[in-house]
Amino acid sequence: MLGSGAREHAIVSALLGEGAGHQVVAAPGNAGIAAVAETVSLDASNGDLVASYARDTAVDLVVIGPEAPLVAGVADRVRAAGIPVFGPDRAAAALEGSKAFAKRVMDAAAVPTGRAIRAEDLDAVADALDELGAPHVVKADGLAAGKGVLVTSDRGAALAHAEHYLQQGPVLVEEFLDGREISLFFLSDGHDVLPLSPAQDFKRVGDGDTGPNTGGMGAYSPLPWLARGWADEDAFVTEVRDTVALPTVRALEAEGTPFVGLLYCGLIVTEAGVRVIEFNARFGDPETQVVLARLETPLSGLLLAAATGGLGGMPDPVFRDESAVIVVLASEGYPEEPITGRPIGGLDDALEVPGVTIAHAATALVEDRFVATGGRVLGVVGVGGDLAAARDAAYEAIGRIRLQGSFYRTDIAHAAIEEEAAS
Ligand code: AMP
Ligand code: GLY
User: Fold this and answer.
1) Which overall architecture, per CATH, does domain 180-422 show?
2) Are 183 and 303 in contact (CB under 8 A)?
3) Which of 151, 152, 178, 292 is deepest in the core (most CB within 10 A)?
4) pLDDT tens per residue, range 80-94
5) Which CATH number does 117-174 carry?
6) pTM of the predicted model, to two decimals?
């Protein structure tokens, strides 16, 4: 397992939770992962190092968590060494690494998405802003850790954002898509896909979707409100598989750059139908933590089948009829300038709450104490019979954790629960 975040902690926990005796090694991992599995300090972005480590230790499967190693071509090196790898080669990872590439593939595959205009200078940006109208959406082309996107009605702010990112390359000006966002993951073996269960992510730092974008402050799954637009979750998932995931995977296959790994479809349900806002080439964080918390089918078999071309004919993964909610605890100053190094208390108390697990995102053990080492420190996952029970468990537990200056959103899954109660 390559990576060091809460997503990787959740994947490692899911693999170990199968009880199949898997031996899991994480590189580099984090303090939470080190409590349950072996960790090695290996540069996860160095493909040659990863490939030789995997060969020397006879690893059966390499799972790549974050986007940076994918875009750096780590999967290419591991695959070339003859080792099964869950994660796309560099060329296919451009689906996440370049928004312009993703738009081109979507056009080729007739995947529904918003209009986008690629601009290489400020004049072209200004023309595009006028053509597409407000609210404005301006995106950096390359990886920007969730910070490259600005959605604003302020034309001057849109221009300033574009000017900043133009220093690094072209920017995209996009049509504003209005509606609810959904993260839906598909396992892909390069030809066939299998869906996981949908989740909703909360990207803004503050309650009520205020403040800057972050990597994600919370999530929940499943989405009870889907049943109001579709017959059920399956109908929605099938539509996205047939109109988005499968055409995209087949288009990449036809171009000779097969996508093997996790196709993350970032969707908006508009009045005119489902639209793609972005693709990622890996599991989402924190959505993975709630999706895997409900997964009944053993994850290892799914990942290995995807890595070895074996998804065709397999049944869809099964999810427990339970709900999961994750609330992320962030360091003071996140996302601009998180303060790190502070000790974390109360973790054992939090874990006493029934149905609760904790995924470590940025922690280290210093003299037997966990300390925060980054902006998103950990995520508290509550599982329950319905969303309200899951949410209550997560909030009861996170309230028991002590980290000076830390904060979390108080409204994760709130609107969905209210709607359920009202309907
Ligand atoms: P992205 O990095 O492309 O996922 O964008 C980050 C966030 O910006 C998304 O999760 C949306 O909330 C918002 N966003 C991106 N593109 C659009 C769009 N075309 N219309 C409306 N909101 C968008
Ligand atoms: N939670 C958003 C992402 O993983 O990109």
Assistant:
1) 2-Layer Sandwich (3.30)
2) no
3) 292
4) 999 999 999 999 999
5) 3.30.1490.20
6) 0.94
